[in-house]
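for the writeup, i need someone to sanity check this before i put it in the appendix. the sequnce is what the collaborator sent (i think, or maybe the updated version? ugh). structure was predicted straight from it, no edits. if anything looks off just tell me and ill rerun, i have time this weekend
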Amino acid sequence: MLCFRALLSVGCLAACLLVPTRGDVILNEFLASNQRNLADRDGEFSDWIEIFNTGPAAVNLAGWSLTDDHAEPHKWTFPATNLNAGAYLLVFASGKDRTNAGVELHTSFSLNADGEYLALFPPESDIPATEFAPEFPRQQADVSFGFAGGQPRFFNPPTPRAANGPGFANFVADTKFSHDRGFYVQPFDLVITCATAGATIRYTTNGAPPTATTGLVYSGPIPIVGTKVIRAAAFKTDLQPSGVDTQTYLFAEDIFKQSADGKAPPGWPTSWGNNVVNYGMDPDIVNSATYKDELRPALASLPSFVVVTELRNLFDATTGIYANAGNDGRAWERPASLELINPDGAEGFQVNCGIRIRGGFSRDSNNPKHAFRFFFREEYGAPKLRYPLFGDNGTDTFDNIDLRTFQNYSWSFQGDSRGVFFRDQFSRDAQLDLGFQAERGNYYHLFINGQYWGLYNTCERPEASYGETYFGGRKEDFDVIKVEAGPYEINATDGNLAAWQTLYASLRTKPVTDATYLKLQGLNPDGTPNSTYPILLDVDNLIDYMLVMYFGGNLDAPISNFLGNTSPNNFYGMRDRTGRSGGFKFFAHDAEHTLLEVNEDRTGPFSAGSSGVSKSNPQYFFQQLTSNPEFRLRVADRIQRAFFNGGPLTVEANRRRVSKRTNEIASAVVLESARWGDSKRAQPFTRNGEWQTEVNRIQSSYFPQRATAVLNQFRAEGWLPAVVAPSFSQHGGPVNSGAQITIAAPAGTIYYTTDGSDPRLPGGGISPSARTYSAPVELTENVQLQARARSLNNDWSALTSANFLIIQTWTDVLITELMYHPTAEDGADPDDFEFVELKNVGGIERDLSGVQFTNGIRYTFPNGTRLPAGGFLVLASRESTFTNRYPNLRPFGVYAGKLANSGERLTLIHAAGAPIFDVSWSDQLPWPSSADGDGFSLVPRNPNANPNPNDPAQWRASVQLGGSPGADDPVLTVPQVVINEVLAHTDPPDLDAIELYNPSALPADVSGWFLSDDRNTPKKYRIPGDRIVPPGGYLVFDEEDFNRLGEPTAFTFSSHGDEAYLFSADSAGNLTGYSDGWSFGASANRISFGRYTNSVGEVQFPAQRELTLRGNNAGPAAGPIVINE
């Protein structure tokens, strides 16, 4: 038997090689984190396991088996397959369970890169041929693990189906810095350390990553007296080097004085290929009496991104991406570090990534300030960036991010006095305000290797991963359509063009019939849903997208004026092929050519799209659809909603939108002026001069005049009826029960409804639900009031619609269950089993009409939604998977997005916008660990009250596996025993130990429960029967219990830091939801960690003054000082 045991807690690897008990077949190598190494026949990068026949004769593998569960040796069995002497066989550990001999094999399980049990068993034997026990060590991306010369080794690169190389024994620990990245005023000495004994630390200051032979050898503290970029790594023979850690230290005075003479800084190139070169901060701004005192506030007004990379990656005349900005694609991606530094000291991040130049026109060699795109991949480090770049309003998980420059109407490129830096952002913000998903963006300073590079704007990319995040489902199911620059033709950047082509073909013929118009929306001619019709178009999204384009007078999207209005440009279209989130949706993108001329008319019609599908675009679809009367009236309805009654495109709403952004960047514009204001002329553009002038023009002149101009354009096109829409005496919002709402219109008969339906029937008839207005409407419940005016000629006005909310208290509506990290079954996506439960804990029915989830997930309750007293309501991530797991309960609705497995903020607001319930939970202690991937949900301890939902003490894991959607969770009867003390650093004869404490007045039976050093692997040591913790008493387990020789799940604690957990279980070994545990840091010999409640009631686990197993804890070794106010 070939046996491997990992003793990672002490940072070493040990292996035992025994004579094989049966045959010469071994498990020779495996890859548990396959990112780009080897794809299976499905094109997926599945984990893989390599089997090697070391013997002199062929072996038939029939009956041999692989397993990742020591309790199930024959979990996956090989078919009859001959493995010749000296031959290798690759089995993909994908979970696809394929056992057809002669074709690619797949196990029924996949591998856990964090470490787990793995073994190869001969036929009809419980003695493994090869075993990694209790678990193999934590694996790295695209680094395999196996044997070389009988010893366990890592291999980089892996060697599937080939002899293993020498490999390496382990990984060098990461370097640690005494000072974190950020802005500094005073010089300091920087200390760099590495926990791996004998490792050599090397560092650089020029942006290049150090190697085993390059960079300075660290021998002592490094004086940091000014702006400095430090990149460090640690090296040791026979070990894989640590990753490169990057820390940037910025000093304001250095920034303001950088390259004052315009010359290249020391070590920087004097040329950027054929690009215009521009360095330095303009002394005319930096030393100006007007601005010099604003420089520091300007620097602190926004977060800062810091790019660090080898300068030749950017500026080499042949291979540099900045010097050759016109090139794109993977070949023009370079490795870099990206840091985020927050001016208030809040935690930012550092991530290794790939960097490219982004954009179209901005790539011009006359533009000295290019834009960037950052890619997060396993080959650089983290496969995704996980950080809330957009706060609570967007996702915190990114495959890539864009950092936009300002090329059109900019100071740096075109020397244009109209540079305001928010034109594109305005359109994206407007689309969000209209109620649709859009490309979120924020503003940042940018530094490159410590040099200030100016003001930049982040921008989400509506690609397939965006669709998965904001609309739910799987990114593999999304079609994403955009325009390819150059030919200016559409292509599918994700998915395919099939549905798009069907949509285009459906709209080729005018007039578009009602049947066609409805079919595009998945409806029969009578308006009822038809499940056989694919939903191809989100009509409201198309209309509102075009309203944003028309209002801004967009010259370059979705049809380009600069291309003679014959070609599309600058749009994204997205659709989930499963139909889960409706038809194609469109996104405002790269909208810099906006907010210019007051009378700009982009209503067309233009020819782009008429020549064929390659030139098709959303405006072409819109133009074709306006031949349909029902669509035209829907356009009128959306115009009425957006441009009247305080809608998102009214003058005041537009002004507020711009003011929000100008308030954010006004101070930072001073630094942009210093860096790039003199790029195209000797006298720099300034914040108080050209910038403020153009901002004032847009706010004071453009917006009021533009509203009138664009509405006149709509009327000229016939998109606004001559019949004026009604108005309400109060346009929605909170009202007292019994409030009287009057409705008025200058002409025609007014028809209204209060059930959310349209007073007009398709085709022009009067709805049976409609009432003729003759007296004020009395409101006694939440309603959506909708009204139209109808002329004597039977012409209808646009729809006026408003939501009215009866003033009531909302403390009775609680979120009472969150299944945020469910388990999967039958190969399904675990996220599909998520759900959220609401409960009305009060004594009267609650009207949820218009109530919506805004953070975390997105869902708006339809009009007429009632939650009875004591009633429950469940929303699911996916209805089919939910009903399969909970067949006796149908979810009320399906939400968009998904709950983060790591925890996030979830907000429920009422129709007037005020919060009803707001909770931010986490998968980290002290939040219940059993709710994080073990199959249990998160429920409040008191199902009828939750006074502080952000307090982890108010929550527990559910009693039942799978939770209890639609009902109160059963009362927790499990004794709440806690881990009270842990001893992790011992030398013989002492043993690692863990102490349990029963705080209750009754005996606590913990027989059959589990102890573990890994919260993600609960079932390590099962406590034997008849183990009782007395009331107020203690029970201690040590290595003789949980580290017994031969036990595959044996463990010890690491003196370098570890975690200790207790999990409740029933007599069959099934988890029952209760858990307690905590993590701890490095410890000295015989120094334990213990539970301690500080002066403000917080439970902590500090090192103890002395070891007190089986007794009261001694208390912290150094009393912690708690500043409460």
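Residues 1-22, 1119-1125 have pLDDT under 50 and may be disordered. The longest strand covers residues 349-358.
thx in advance!!
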